[in-house]
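Troubleshooting: if your tokenizer reports a length mismatch, compare against these two reference records.
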Amino acid sequence: MSIYRCKRGLALVLVMVCAAALTGCFAKSKNTLSMARWEDDVFVSEWAGFKLTVPEGWYVATDEEIKETMNLGAEVIAGATGEAAEKYKAVNAVYPLYISKYPLDSEELNPNAMIVFEKLSALQNLLIKDADSYIESTMQQLEDLNIGYSTKKGDKVVIAGEEYSSMTATLELIEDLSLIQRYYSRVHDGYIISFILTGISTNPEELDNIVKSIEKY
């Protein structure tokens, strides 16, 4: 079980290399739209124009748990606060959602999904100009860790009516069991919005189902 906990913790750290973005809606100024809020078990971003239904039985991390899990600093905001996008103009990154199959203290391998919004201008890599270069940079960072990650850039994927660049990273845990991380990213209004999904090779359908649950709002 110790290797599971080690790899699970490693996965949580590795997703911190990613980011995400904000998009608008034509009905009213995008700056007045709610960036992130909950409607029962549905996560909604008016600004980004999508909603995500939490899988039945999955755990929704609190704002404080997101901050603790991701070791977030003062320059980022965690949680679905319901505030308008205008409030976050000076914020470099927002982590509005983290869900997992089991509670965060579980010793089981714990599939999870997160959303990250990050200001493109705040990224340290000046070569990142679009979603493709962002994905490629993420792939390189994972491979540079030299812990056995293999990465593969995927095709463009349409999620909730928008086109995302994608990639998959895998890390062998034990024989016939691997960690799978999928990244879906796009740029809008100077930000990158990313869905980062982590699962295991014995049940990749869990990740597919989360992507299917993301709909246009």
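Reference record two:
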Amino acid sequence: MKKFCLAHFIAIVLVSVFMLSESLAMGLGGYYTFGSGSGTWTINTEGSDDNDIDTDDSGTGFGFILDTAVAKDKLFNYRLGVGMEKKEYEIDDGPTLKVDNFVIDNDFGFGVYRTPNIRLWLGPELKISYGTETIDGLDYSVMSFGVGPVIGLNYNIGDRFTLGVKSGYLFEGTAGYGEEDNGDSVDHTGQDTFFYINFAIIYRLNDIF
């Protein structure tokens, strides 16, 4: 269902953009990302004491990009990423939680080096994700909010296409909730750090240097 809704969201965005004026200048494309990190969670199970655990994190994902300044000679760019992510939390001495996340990335970039062929940008990123997983009969939901630095490089090919790569280091706060078969609740709060690399192919609409 989540993938179905995401596909419709992307289709609506694409149709809306192409119906706008020909004077519109922006970039549209797709991305693939992967990364890893670690975290510390505090688990609370109804009727039991809190339990602190360590996690080893990894993730891969793909999605849609909209960027307001891919190639043009402009200082500021905003990049929106909307996609799906498979995030795995490997718990010490415990199971691995595999969460299918819906993700929204917000990059606020500043082009520190700009030429007709290359744009090097950096700035802060805000990331929000939400996902669910069923493990050992437990339906569990996880939400996270991350912030951290990001740096990106756009390589422009002609007047239409751009190859992009970006990398970031996020400090994330996470919270989760689930309910066991017997009705007892389980929840957690925690902090994670996550390093990732993202590759993109972008089609530019009137976005030239």
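Descriptive notes for reference record two:
- The helical segments are 2-18.
- The chain is about 10% helix and 70% strand.
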